[in-house]
């Protein structure tokens, strides 16, 4: 296993919560309207080498996950619901039990930052975009 474990890990945890992935690996501007409620997009932000032994290379992988929530009544309800759902996502992705025994080579998952903003200022759909920045520590075999 290698860095390839990170994307499927996020996909599986988000799918378990009922989210649909926008699979374009680089462009989050072309998300279909059909998944603007409970849809998500993920992308690698950076990968840094953090330690190395003769047997493994440790890397710090920054991953940006954007989730989209449609608020049908008003912006305040949309924000409140997106905060509740964001907490569920953080718990699911960063829970030690979810990666400790089943997601080799992932050693650690931490939330670095979280932001809430409107998906589009021109739209009146009250769609909230929540941006998570997770930091994964991954070790791969180099022998």
| Strand content bin | 35-45%
Overall structural class, as computed from helix and strand content, comes to alpha+beta
Residue share in helix: 10-25%
Strand arrangement, largest sheet? 1-2-3-5-4
Question: Count of DSSP E strands?
Answer: 5
Mean pLDDT: 88
Question: Span from first to last CA?
Answer: 13 Å
Largest sheet: 5 strands, mixed
Low-pLDDT stretches = none
Protein traits:
alpha+beta; five-stranded mixed beta sheet; 143 residues; single chain; 3 helices
Describe the structure.
The model has no long low-confidence stretch (mean pLDDT 88). The chain has 143 residues and is of the alpha+beta class. A five-stranded mixed β-sheet has the order 1-2-3-5-4, with helices on one face. The longest helix is centred in the middle third of the chain and has 20 residues, at 75-94. The chain has three helices and five strands; from the N terminus they run H-E-E-E-H-H-E-E. 24% of the residues lie in helices and 41% in strands. The protein is elongated and about 55 Å long.
């Amino acid at each position: 296993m290698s860095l390839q474990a990170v994307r499927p890990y996020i996909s599986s945890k988000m799918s378990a919560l009922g989210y649909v992935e926008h699979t374009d690996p680089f462009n989050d501007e072309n998300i279909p309207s059909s998944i603007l409620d409970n849809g998500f997009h993920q992308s690698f932000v950076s990968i840094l080498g953090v330690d190395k032994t003769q047997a493994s290379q440790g890397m710090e992988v920054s991953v940006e996950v954007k989730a989209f929530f449609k608020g049908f009544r008003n912006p305040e309800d949309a924000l409140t619901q997106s905060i509740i759902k964001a907490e569920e996502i953080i718990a699911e992705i960063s829970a030690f039990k979810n990666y400790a025994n089943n997601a080799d080579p992932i050693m650690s998952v931490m939330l670095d930052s979280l932001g809430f903003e409107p998906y589009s200022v021109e739209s009146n759909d009250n769609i909230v975009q929540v941006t998570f920045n997770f930091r994964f520590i991954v070790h791969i075999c180099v022998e």
